[in-house]
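To whoever is on call:

I kicked off a structure prediction for a single chain this morning and the downstream step that reads the tokens threw a length-mismatch warning. I double-checked the sequence; it's 458 residues and nothing unusual in it as far as I can see. Pasting both halves so you can look.
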Amino acid sequence: MQNQPNLLFIMTDQQRWDAMGCSGGWVSTPALDRIAAGGVRFANCVTNSPVCIPARVSLATGHYPHSTGVWTNTRYTLPADTSTWLQAIRQAGYRTSLFGKTHLHPHQGDLREGEPLLHAYGLDDVDEIGGPRASAKLLSHMTEGWQRKGLWRSYQEDYAERFGNKPHVVRPSVLPFDEYADVYVGRRAAAYLAAYDRPEPWFCWVSFGGPHEPWDTPEPYASLHDPEAMPPPAHLLDDYADRPQGGFDRRKRLPLSTEEVRAMRTNYAGNISLIDDQIGNLLKVVEARGELDNTVIAFTSDHGELNGDYDLVYKETFFDGAVRVPMLLNTPASRGGELAGSVSDAFVEWFDIGPTLVELAGGRLDHRQFARSLAPLLSDPGAAHRPYAVSEYDNEIMILGERWKMALNAAGECYLLFDRLQDPAESRNLAGRPEMKETESRLRLQLLEHLLQHQRRL
């Protein structure tokens, strides 16, 4: 294919859908806002699973958790012979690279020993890191550097104290700013792109480990946002006592004060702004190379963060704060066009980014998978994409459509039901109410049809 665009795929870990200037207004993200202004923002993007490993396995494979069998954060290695969209990008003539986290194989030992796996998945040049927690115990190029500089022990001690006492404590990282993981990932990717001199077009996956907890954003970003300007947490104001129980009910509620929630959200926003500045630096490198006019930019996150919603932290639920994620797509054709800055309300699932990038690269996917390219929405953002979006976790399943969001427990019983039009804040749980029986039955049938249509053929 002549004039193939370069592909810059940027991903964060645990960034909720409203945590951008262009979507929620409470986080400063000029680089992400610039990407959105030159492309399409997908306002109804849902992760395939509100937890790291199942979501990332679905991203790589184009299959749902019920098909991959990866329902939770378990010790799992994606087999080396798995068909992935990354391989299709490489087969289309690209030099492929990764900087950051994949979580497609266990975070243990020395991550560098897993590089042959990443090559098999479709990645040529690799500098992989673990997540913030895993980096306290596993070796990578990054943590070896911490060890060499005498920093790793302090990092390990800080993590042990945090998670041994108050996991949601807010305080800056013990690492110097230049050694902070998100700074490391951004700078390694920028250096790679600045020095790239191969004849092939490049695909660069930049996968930040933040804003995943802990709340350890370094200064000056920790103090960048005003705690008083943070959005208040969501709460259930009405919940039917006789409804079935599900995963949400098993989560431990925390006695979070207003000040603690504001502190977490302020720190979280600061981490996102730090990452946004790293993204801005990447864009400057691409511009300096004279390649921005021939580069596709995609941005998303694997799942969200509750940050005090419903007196919970982390993810692992089907509430919007955990299950809805950002999705931005900016292409040479979209920039400066009349549709630049459009917002699509189509129902999108986060693994759709894989076949999208393959199509924009001029490649093809020959294996069976269920992700769908978003490319048609670039020319018609108002078009439909899916009739609804689905997410799965721990043998439970959620469906989100124009009017209703429903979650079923492992026994197939409805335990969460929200009217998205009348109750966008998800404050009234209608599950189990006698008058909602017909609605629950209709949505359950839609999910059953979805499951039957999206089975993996072995």
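Update from on-call: the warning came from a stale cache, not from the record. Cleared it. Sanity check on the structure: The chain has 14 helices and 14 strands.
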